[in-house]
Design brief:
single chain; mainly alpha; MetI-like fold; 10 helices; 0% strand
Length: 261
């Protein structure tokens, strides 16, 4: 059943209004930053314009797009590994009491193990390789994804599963049309928190054992006390992550939740 023209116009107006508010919020932040930096007049807090000029220069020489692309590739690889493995573990633990009791202490241990310890051990055991870096990041995120999806699996409405069984839908169709739609809110919650955590850990991984990427560049400019370029890389990376949230996660979440009243 298609939405009425009035409902479509109202939805379009809400989206436009929300976008305008977000743009205004960003503009206000930049204005406050610019004024504060000019008032303090300290080399430790460069102005927003100085950081923007540095970003333009680094884009012109190719260093910013190159390192940003490498870091994003690592973020994407670790994120998808963590989501797939964590979702599988969480759903199984949420559906099986025996498995949940057996492996719950494992999750608690991994949740409380510092990220730095996992990264250092991965580098010591497997060397300073891409696989070790991505694996260390994924291992840090898998337990949190599993816990979130476990709670979602526990909250499933069993009446839908009974209905699917009565219609003999089969396991795959039941998973696709009955279980996953109920888990979408938990999946997107895990994805949002996962992306926020993964990119931060990736920067630490790059700082400790990689020769490129945003984390490596931030470490390099830290040694030179170049706050302007540190902020330039930081702002560029955060802007990309925020764009992913606005352009990918939010539309997908709205699309996935269309079946709900």
């Amino acid at each position: 059943m298609s939405a009425s023209p009035t409902a479509e116009r109202a939805s379009s107006w809400l989206v436009s209004s929300s976008l305008a508010q977000r743009i205004a919020s960003v503009a206000l932040f930049i204005l406050v930053w610019q004024v504060t930096a000019e008032v303090l007049h300290s080399r430790l807090l460069p102005t927003a314009t100085a950081v923007f000029v540095a970003m333009v220069h680094m884009c012109a020489d190719g260093s910013l797009p190159f390192n940003l692309g490498i870091t994003l590739a690592r973020v994407a690889a670790a994120f998808f590994v963590a989501m797939i493995v964590g979702m599988a573990i969480g759903i199984v633990m949420g559906r099986s009491r025996t498995i949940d009791v057996l492996f719950d202490s494992w999750l608690v241990l991994l949740l409380n193990l510092p990220a730095l310890v996992i990264i250092v051990l991965a580098y010591v055991w497997f060397g300073l390789t891409e696989a070790a870096a991505i694996g260390a990041v994924a291992v840090n995120k898998i337990p949190a994804v599993a816990v979130t999806l476990r709670e979602g699996a526990r909250a499933l409405d069993r009446s839908y599963a009974d209905m699917a069984q009565s219609f003999q839908m089969g396991r795959w169709r039941t998973l696709r049309h009955v279980i996953l739609p109920q888990l979408y809110p938990y999946i997107f919650a895990a994805a949002r928190s996962g992306l926020a955590l993964v990119w931060k850990i990736v920067l630490i991984v790059e700082l400790l054992g990689r020769s490129n990427g945003v984390g490596f560049e931030i470490q390099l400019y830290f040694q030179q006390f170049d706050v302007t370029r540190i902020l330039a890389y930081t702002i560029a990376f955060v802007a990309v992550i925020q764009l992913i949230e606005w352009a990918l996660f939010q539309p997908l979440e709205r699309r996935a939740a269309r079946w709900r009243p």
